[in-house]
Amino acid sequence: MEEFDAVVIGAGNAGLTAAAALQLSGQRTLLLERHNIPGGCATSFVRGEFEFEVALHQLSGLGPQDKPFVMRQMFQSLGIMDKVEFVQEHELYRYVVPGEIDITLPASWSGLRDTLKTHFRHEAAGIDRFLALCEGIATERFAILPEIAKRNDPELLKARCPLFAQYGMQPASEILDELFTSQAIRSVVGAYWCYLGLPPSQLPFADLAMVLYAYATFKPWHVKGGSQALSNALLESFLNAGGSVQFNCAAQRIETEHGRVCAVHTEHGARIACDIVISNASSVVTYHDLLDGEAPPEVVRQDFRSRRIGTSAFVLYIGLDCPPEQLGIPCASSFICNHLDEEKAYARMKTLDAPEHTMLTCYNIDDPDFAPSGKSVVSLVCLQYGAAWDDVAADDYFDTKYALADQLLLQAEQVYPGLRAHIEQMEVATPKTMMRYLNTPGGAIYGFEQNAADSPLVRGHINVIPGLYLAGSWTSMGGFQPTYMAGFSAAEIALKARHNAEESAHA
Amino acid sequence: MPKPNQALTAVTGYQQALDLQQQLAEQGTDLSELRGNVAQQLAQLHPKRLSLRVDAIIDETPSTRTLRVSAATGSLPNFQSGQYINLFVTVDGTETARPFSIASAPEQRSHYDLTIKRMPNGFVSHHMQDQIKVGDTLQSSGPMGAFFYNPVYHGKTVVFLAGGSGIAPARSMLNSLIAREAEIDFHLLYASQSADDVIFGQELEATAQAHANIQVHQVISRPSPEYTGLSGHLSAELMQRLLPLQADPIVFICGPTGFNEHCQAQLNSLGIANRRIRVEANGTPNPPQQLASWPEGLDPDREITVSVQGRGQFKAKIGEPLLNSLERNGYQAENACRSGECSLCRVKLLSGDVFNPPQAKLRKSDRQFGWIHSCVAFPTEDIEILL
């Protein structure tokens, strides 16, 4: 029988960081991954001359070298900063509604202010107020609130986090309505809603404010070799520290004894004894499919009742036979929208109809090495719920997929005409594809819907099965930075619990 | 629900968030209806393994047979014409596998046709032809591969250049086209060594007769004296004469490696860019020392030692793909295309070096961290790998 101190289920972002952190802290750790490669979302694939980035559009939280932020510090402690090369992007995004608005926002806090004021002269006061709110709320939420919230004192919170108290948990759309007179600027500054998966009416203002502030201040980053390079580097650190990994080996069951974790069983029939399990599988799969016993603990079931499966995505991975400038692609990220109505665009995400808000990322703008010389690598994405595909018969699957791909291209060509004629390679991924590779219900890419009720501020941390920790988008926010941080923090919590148990055993 | 946080009551919207949570909880479920749901959906759409029963064995030519297989349990998954399945077999005690294109159309999925040609020095094809009987059960991967028609950008004119048993995916595409009544002009140029070697010959002719949008040209490279049809190699001149090359076709090529390279060069000489050419993956380079990039002076017959970290070691020849020597020595590695593309057989090189031929579609960061595709990796010295 094999025995490890800890087993990490799934080599996604959170699983990799958790495994590396555990092993680097001296825990003998086994990392199990059902696929042949580490990364989960953070991966790439090759077609012809092209290597396609699967999921990373803009890495947040890194900060420039002279102004390092949390991710740079975390990657440093995991020993990967000398293994990966990061490339700074210089624009946040281009936002286009053909015939209505076309604006490119720079990745700089002061530049953002100037650009917005140049485009929206009559909104100057609102712009100043908005940016002040974003900065203030981000600072309060990140640096002050976590401690203050524990102090049981509403007045103290109001005094120390005044902006968050007044605006942070209100719907983003309401604050944007208050600050601005034109819908165009609301849509332009709210475009990152699609990184969060819900329209501004359902997003707490703080979430949107923090995303914009973080990207403009700490910059969006690209990784040389794509997110796969990050995944490979994390695995390398883990292996160099003595960790063990098994690919093509799914966990099948988490065994408990007297209510606490004691082993993990693999699809190949092995039983691995351990008393720490960090699951990077979705919480739904972890509790309903992996954890032994008839039903999950009641506290988990109660938590699930107020959750909703979040959005998936529909993606075209495209290799072009021309450089980006030939198509007039000016920056890495373009939001291409048919109109300024996020609610309407969101309603579309639940159907198989043509999407109305899409995003195009060109990966070789800031990193020319990412495509073969004279060519381009592009992703064309729209958010879409997996449920939209539930009634598609197997016989209709490919037709449905290509019909929708066709619609995305038609929309992109409104802004980048001639795109289709330059396609050299293309793969289409549907929510079912996401499900295949991520093993998540509905092919969800960000975990549960991140509405106001989903915030960690209104949810307790669930810790009912001693030794079992969840890490990933299903217990925190979705996206790269949040999932890396979730893995790191799950490892810290597990290590602390082990330390405490050892202390009390000695006492 | 967790106990409300006293401090957060100062936050506008906090109570509304709690109320929303309460309301969602009242309307929601504990998600137990999703128990097993992901696994079940994946088993239908992208099963990892298929259990297949051999329903019939059809003699096509003296060297080629079609295994007609159906699902031993459940049903066969949908696929795109041109895709393959990887058949797992045990030959003389060695567990191995080989990919075979599906020769039947996805529109009828009571069975898959797998058309298998006996390879002169083949290890598996003899077993497939001689040992497998009607009623046998076989294990395979699900359908895989990127060699298929994409309606979004491939256009309405399709050219297929098939050599020998490379006709299998072409037949699937043709039959699919007919079943769908697709408005596509399909031009098949099919090369065989002799008239005896033509697979699906009559069927293809009948198909072309019955459909105005389908053209079939058969070419025999070594015709008998009495043969009157097209003969010789697929030259640029022949392609220009028979194929609608001015219509910006998408061109599929499937045949032996030499055939594929020759056809691609001819097309390039006619101004067809590689952008419009799809070449089916075609196994490991055999023999690898004939590749232009093979290290000069490296003797493919020299023996080296392969160590599998923590598990053991064995001797193997430089010229043998790592995956094959692993399998011969009882080590299992997941695999499917066995041509360098799918990356399922990815293993980590801990020390030593291997020759990666151009067909190894390695990710940039895999190169950086020493991950290789074992199906087309040739150890050039003693190596240690992580499996």
Using a beta-carbon cutoff below 8 angstroms, give the protein chain pair with the largest interface and the number of residues from each chain: A-B, 85 and 67 residues
Query: Strands of the biggest beta sheet of chain A: in what spatial order?
Result: 8-7-16-17-18-15-19
Form type of chain A:
globular
Question: Would you report the number of β strands of chain A?
Answer: 20
Domain unit count of chain A: 3
Note the quaternary state here: heterodimer
Runs of chain A in which pLDDT lies below 50 for 5 or more consecutive residues are none
Cofactor (chain B): FAD; [2Fe-2S] cluster
Domain 2Fe-2S ferredoxin-type (chain B): 302-387
Keywords (chain B): 2Fe-2S, FAD, Flavoprotein, Iron, Iron-sulfur, Metal-binding, Oxidoreductase, Ubiquinone
Pfam families (chain B): FAD_binding_6, Fer2, NAD_binding_1
Polypeptide structure, described:
The complex is a heterodimer of chains A (507) and B (387). Chain A has helices at 13-24, 70-77, 109-119, 124-148, 154-160, 162-168, 172-179, 183-189, 193-196, 205-218, 227-240, 283-290, 298-305, 342-348, 397-415, 431-438, 480-506; strands at 2-3, 6-9, 29-32, 44-47, 50-53, 86-88, 91-97, 101-106, 221-223, 244-246, 251-257, 260-266, 271-273, 276-279, 312-320, 333-337, 357-362, 376-384, 423-429, 468-470. Chain A has 507 residues and is an alpha/beta fold. Chain A has a seven-stranded mixed β-sheet. In chain A, strands 10-3-2-14-20 form a five-stranded parallel β-sheet, covered by helices on one side. Chain A has a four-stranded mixed β-sheet with strand order 1-13-12-11, covered by helices on one side. In chain A, strand 2, helix 1 and strand 3 form a beta-alpha-beta unit. In chain A, helix 4 crosses helix 6 (162-168). Chain B has three domains: 50-140, Translation factors (Elongation Factor Tu (Ef-tu), domain 3), CATH 2.40.30; 157-280, Rossmann fold, CATH 3.40.50.80; 288-386, Ubiquitin-like (UB roll) (Roll). The model of chain B has no long low-confidence stretch (mean pLDDT 94). With 387 residues, chain B is α/β, with parallel strands linked by helices. Chain B has nine helices and 19 strands. The interface between A and B is large, with 85 and 67 residues.
